[in-house]
């Protein structure tokens, strides 16, 4: 069997997700279970194909993984630029998307809050590394790590037009509420 490219695998995942949505709308539970199993197998195949191209996800290791600050700077989020290096310095659990040993993305820090909610400050991939499914793989690994750390559930806030919503929804997250951020200059 010929090895497929990550693009080919992503296209099949998108097709399976469309079939899954149609099956959900029609209430076909057997089809949903079969499609979810197929999607999981495709996810593993995609992870292997990404590794062949040098893209992986691992727990952050200072001294081994390079350019965390550069990646955060490229994302331009001041909260992440302060919280994530502080968490790394404190040895907190961070996952990083890597191209070789270069940090291309992140998620974390990962820990359960007293409520049982799995905490993480965010998920980001530097613009020059977008399009390689690192965000999807980081989020998948984040959910697994939160469960392993004892979290009972996860929730997140995201913009209505945030393209990462497709990653969250593919992982089983569903919108519960929409809200507006209002501002008045004084």
Describe the structure.
With 186 residues, this protein is an alpha+beta fold. The protein contains six helices and six strands. A four-stranded antiparallel β-sheet has the order 1-2-3-6, sandwiched between helices. Strands 4-5 form a two-stranded antiparallel ribbon. The longest helix is centred in the N-terminal third of the chain and has 24 residues, at 29-52. The chain is globular. The relative contact order is 0.11.
Number of helices: 6
The chain-level mean pLDDT equals 90
- Please bin the fraction of helical residues: 40-55%
What is the global morphology? Answer: globular
Spatial order of the strands forming the largest sheet:
1-2-3-6
Main sheet properties: 4 strands, antiparallel
Structural class: alpha+beta
SSE succession: HHEHHEEEEEHH
Distance between the termini: 65 Å
Rg (C-alpha, Å): 18 Å
Low-confidence stretches: none
Number of strands: 6
Share of residues in strands: 5-15%
In short:
By secondary structure, this protein is α+β, with helices and mostly antiparallel strands. It has helices spanning 6-26, 29-52, 68-75, 78-89, 134-148, 165-170, and strands at residues 55-59, 95-99, 102-108, 111-112, 118-119, 122-125.
Which helices and strands, and how do they pair?
Elements: H1 6-26, H2 29-52, E1 55-59, H3 68-75, H4 78-89, E2 95-99, E3 102-108, E4 111-112, E5 118-119, E6 122-125, H5 134-148, H6 165-170
Antiparallel strand pairs: 1-2, 2-3, 3-6, 4-5
Keywords:
46% helix; two-stranded antiparallel sheet; alpha+beta; single chain; globular; four-stranded antiparallel sheet; 6 strands; 186 residues
